[in-house]
Hints:
12 strands, Phosphorylase Kinase, domain 1, two-stranded antiparallel ribbon, alpha+beta, 29% helix, 15% strand
Amino acid sequence: xxxxxxxxxxxxxxxxxxxxxxxxxxxxxxxxxxxxxxxxxxxxxxxxxxxxxxxxxxxxxxxxxxxxxxxxxxxxxxxxxxxxxxxxxxxxxxxxxxxxxxxxxxxxxxxxxxxxxxxxxxxxxxxxxxxxxxxxxxxxxxxxxxxxxxxxxxxxxxxxxxxxxxxxxxxxxxxxxxxxxxxxxxxxxxxxxxxxxxxxxxxxxxxxxxxxxxxxxxxxxxxxxxxxxxxxxxxxxxxxxxxxxxxxxxxxxxxxxxxxxxxxxxxxxxxxxxxxxxxxxxxxxxxxxxxxxxxxxxxxxxxxxxxxxxxxxxxxxxxxxxxxxxxxxxxxxxxxxxxxxxxxxxxxxxxxxxxxxxxxxxxxxxxxxxxxxxxxxxxxxxxxxxxxxxxxxxxxxxxxxxxx
Length: 404
């Protein structure tokens, strides 16, 4: 979220005991800022996130920044060892400010690649490659016994400008409690219905299953540049229509008929019936067309064709829609609404089951307090498959020792 607050760190400042020089500000939000920094030792570039002290929630509650900092550093470190998760190098506190150091990504976030340039426009192979990478990153997070809880395009970043490699970032809302009572947490466009509106009598929900829902909305955003509804809540007219008729999204979403049945299994309102992450990935591998084909566009509803033209205009693309089929041809063609088949209903083996806990964390020894050495990691993560359950794993996580 953009912020008018002054930056906490001046450009040109040295942090991390003189190891890193702040070169420029990348972005700023309500709780801190992200900078591009350079190692004075070897010239390497990093992204440095600085969390501001004395921040308050919208309701005026003072936030415990130290606790939030430790939480984010610890859970991000536990999942960092994967090609599709942003690498965290260290965490430290200096002059009352909390810092996290990551790989510097120069390709922008997924949102800017969706709305700022025609990177995904009618490029099915690019969409497929990117969403599979994102799913692989989420699968790794889940395999560590965690859930991200804030999957959205802003938290997915391209490592370089060609957009061939995406990574997941921002573990500020991540949790190691899979069965969570964190109702309402996350960004409203991507929150699952069970997170937004608890089922009657529910005191917890499965946060990993909720992540699967978010991935479905992200995929729609990549293809269409829009989201299916403002929030998965019965008060939202588009979502209410979807609950009543799952085919309603085919009347305004510019996605292929081939993809629609799978999307409806990912965006299944009942979490226990939602497709698993593994099955979602498996079936995505078989998808050829993510965008509607020319024939589908010729037979598509007026709203779909209008949104397609407006999307092209927004991206600055010269695009001519295929001529609309005659009413006789539309009546004779297969329906554009993808209906459920028996095979669309997942069997028990496809339904999501939480991962076994797989990690514990021990902080590494602090680096030397001088300006001569390289950027040394403070975080040491070890896989541990012996912890029997989530509660035991949570108790086993020691407090992160933060060098000051």
